[in-house]
Amino acid sequence: MDFPGEQNYIEQLSIDCVIFGYHQKQLKVLVPKLNFNGDFYALPSGFVIQDEDIDAAADRILRGRTGIQDTYIDQFHVFGKAGRSNETFLDKLLELNKDTLGEKGMNKKQYDWITKRFVSIGYYALVDINKVIPKKIAIDASIDWYDVRELPPMIMDHNEIVAKALDHLRINIDDKLIAFKLLSETFTMKEIQELYETVFNKPFARNNFQKKILDLNVLDRLEKKFTGAANKAPFLYRLRG
Amino acid sequence: MDFPGEQNYIEQLSIDCVIFGYHQKQLKVLVPKLNFNGDFYALPSGFVIQDEDIDAAADRILRGRTGIQDTYIDQFHVFGKAGRSNETFLDKLLELNKDTLGEKGMNKKQYDWITKRFVSIGYYALVDINKVIPKKIAIDASIDWYDVRELPPMIMDHNEIVAKALDHLRINIDDKLIAFKLLSETFTMKEIQELYETVFNKPFARNNFQKKILDLNVLDRLEKKFTGAANKAPFLYRLRG
DNA sequence: TCAAAAGTGTTGGGCTTACACCCATGG
DNA sequence: CCATGGGTGTAAGCCCAACACTTTTGA
């Protein structure tokens, strides 16, 4: 969430980003907490500048919180119910922040702008969580990775947006070869499998899974990875190209 | 395309509808021609009223040109390139309609509103072409069904929008059981097959196709259809439920 | 009785799934 | 040499594509 200030944005149109990461068998979503009294969590969001492609706006929002670009990001759904507005949450926020609001610098004009009914384009991005140093922007009190199954209650319909993003991730993970975007540059077969098992919340047979992934013909097999464990060392792989 | 007049619409946000019909082995799209000098074709479009769901807006636009509601309609993509504006086409239109423009009633304020950069949500709908009597609205000179492969050049990126809608129709036709929406209430297996062959532009084996469709378990077999032809009469089917 | 088109059966190949076995590794 | 976990092979079953055959219809 951005306070629009004097920026030349398209009105009543926003972009919400569901940024997925993966770490220790958990699928994670990057969620900032707003820098106000009260526990307000909101997806990384923003608006579209007048002379900016919507995809570029989504990239910009992603980059603002992660520093990442050139990863997978795609629109997946438009959220446009009639009553879809920041007003409810913002009034609650204002109520809890009467005293400090002057400092934070939201004026009446901004309030009117931001509390209109909004149509939001949902984007989801997949990032290598190790490459990301989450960045707070002005309105963030904190920004952290949360397990997709243990998200805090977020403002508006943001929890639904994540649920729908996860649906689309599942649908597209095989067709668009996007799973690898969640892993480091090199990874073992077991790591891919655990990622799949996390995303789909079900086990896969080890041998058949390996066959399926290798049959995609998009991985290069690299050297073995010696961990020191008393067992056969797994190969490392890397996405080709 | 609608001239916004005094309506309370969301600015810079439009909805474009690709309305598919099917007739005589042709997949058709409903395209109005604008009531101005010059050959301006544009998809049925409109804007979102402030207190209206975007889905309701799409329904309203569909209903306005077809009278149809309660059919399949769904958003499929947002078109939001930075330079996406009516200005180029509208200036050409104005140039060709200098003399009559006063009558048509577009004023400067409306011109400014309509020529801004627009983000458009693409919807596609599937209708039973026999149930539709295409309706001209004020700005239409005519409205007709065109073979999806022989569309006239349309304004802005509308030809691309149709191409993308067709992609989504192909992707969803099996999963969402939407093909039947393009047929009359009762139909023969051959008619379904011809529809599929038209949509995918390739032949299907008759016996295997029948098996596949019946295995969906969504059709009721009705009485036979006697056409008077000197051959076995095919069964009629109807979508169950 | 015949041609045309609809309905149904059957076979083979490819892909997925389940089970089994072998191999590398460090203690 | 053993436990552990990784890599690979194989057979069964399912799905889909191709071919074949039968049935119905009106001339």
Describe this entry's structure for a reader.
The structure is a homodimer of 241-residue chains. Chain A is of the alpha+beta class. The first copy, chain A, folds into 2 domains: 9-172, Nucleoside Triphosphate Pyrophosphohydrolase, CATH 3.90.79; 183-239, Winged helix-like DNA-binding domain superfamily/Winged helix DNA-binding domain (Arc Repressor Mutant, subunit A, Orthogonal Bundle), CATH 1.10.10.10. Chain A is 29% helix and 28% strand. Chain A has helices spanning 54-66, 87-96, 101-104, 108-114, 158-172, 189-200, 206-215, and strands at 9-23, 26-34, 45-49, 72-79, 119-126, 140-147, 186-188, 219-224, 235-239. In chain A, the strands form 2 sheets. In chain A, strands 1, 2, 3, 4, 5 and 6 form a 6-stranded mixed sheet that branches. A 3-stranded antiparallel sheet of chain A has the order 7-9-8. In chain A, a hairpin with a 2-residue loop joins strand 1 (9-23) and strand 2. Chain A is elongated and about 65 Å long. The interface between A and B is medium-sized, with 21 and 21 residues. The first copy, chain A, binds a DNA duplex (27 and 27 nucleotides) through residues 188-190, 205-208, 210-212, 224, 226-235.
